[in-house]
Design goal:
By secondary structure, this protein is mainly alpha-helical. Helix content is about 85%, strand content about 5%. The chain has 20 helices and two strands. The chain has a two-stranded antiparallel ribbon with strand order 1-2. The chain starts with 11 loop residues before the first strand and ends with a helix.
Amino acid sequence: MLSLTILTVPFYTSLRHNGNDFMILSRTDIAHFQKKFFGLVLALLVFTAIAQGQSTKIDSLKTLLARATQDSNKVNLLYALIDEFEVSGNYPTALLYADQQLKLVTKLGRKRDEAYCHYNIAYILAKQGNYKKAFDHYFTSEALSIKINYQGNLALVYTEIASLFREQGNYAKALEYDFKALKVKKTLGEEETIALALGNIGITYKKLADYKKAMEYYLKSLEIYEKLKNQSQIARTLSNIANIYLETADYEKSLEYSFRALKIKRAVGNELGVAITLANIGNAYQRIGDYEKALKYTFDALPVFEKNEKKVNCAISLYEIGQIYTKQKNEQKAIEFYTTGLGKARETGALDVIKEIELALSIILEERNKFREALEHYKAYISARDSIFNEENTKSLVRSEMNFEFEKKEAQAKLEQEKKEAIALAESRKQRMILFIVSGMGLVILGFGIFAYRSFLRKKKINLEITSQKAIIEEKQKEILDSIHYAQRIQRSLLPSEKYIERMIKKVRV
């Protein structure tokens, strides 16, 4: 039995202006904030459009870009152009402008814009189905974001890497990056983005058929959305919870949550969301066996799918109606709706839906003894099944190649990290050795200085003692000389002079 796909979460990105981070926003919100922050640019855009008679915003942006003289203005205009081409689904042109922008911001040295450009290029490449190159740019963006601590962009990168791994069926890797995204978003503290990350983890666990874990994370996500009163996200999360109950055959609980989601979607005017929920309610009633209600809700959803040209959803709903009529033994009605559904499915090339309808038609036609027609449909069923098998094989080969490349890159990154750690360790040892040598030399010099200073003090003390002794000796010597001089003076005063002696001698001789 086929079930309709629930649109679980919108695409989220970050707003940048002159290299600054603001918050995590949806692409719809981006357009609003671009108008707010680039008011001058848009005013000029309108003026130019009126003056030159240009009919589209893209033409006006191109004109402004051609006339822009400042690189910073060119970067902002390129953001607007890329966004326009992405929204319109013109990914090749969006990629050309994204490459141009990357070269410009790299030249300007605007690292945050460079990291975001790699992210944006990866997103566009993923939309084109070029997953290998998309991963290359995502990982480059991751490395740059880590280097400059650009947490806002890192959260986006981890979310999209997880989404790609989930799309490729590598749920273990998807879960790894889901949790990385959650960790960064908790650091940023934006509750709505935390709720989004929790919801994505729930989606991955659902893919792994771990419904208990999926329910746990859906409920955590729901709690935050209810706190924030985000009605649209509450409705989506309720639908996801309803699908878990549908998978675990708790149909009453599935209907309870589906009706809660339906009420909110009607209140907020989400017409397509209402149709998807109605179809899922019809699916639940079909499993219960209440075919009347199953037909009612499925028929209620069908016109909305047709109005919005959701051909795959139309095909699935027509198939489900055919299934209900088959169970009611209304084979003619069943064939009618199977055939209409098959036409819708073929228009879109939805092989999984084509396969189921072809098989249903082959069985019911065989029961009506229309063996030739039954055989044709059975052959078509086999062809669709084999095509899916070949497609799955191709995807499997791509996944294997991508996993090999990823593991190779991880091994290379690990080797590089080990090399860096070895160099860092050697450098650390070298630094420690230099520190020890310098410290030793410092201690020797300090010791020598202390020794020299002590020797100087000792010498100074000795010199002071010598000077003091010399002064004492000189003082004593002076005292002795003074005494001698004094004695000589006394002696001279007591003894007769030489002339007196000579006169006395002369008298004696006479």
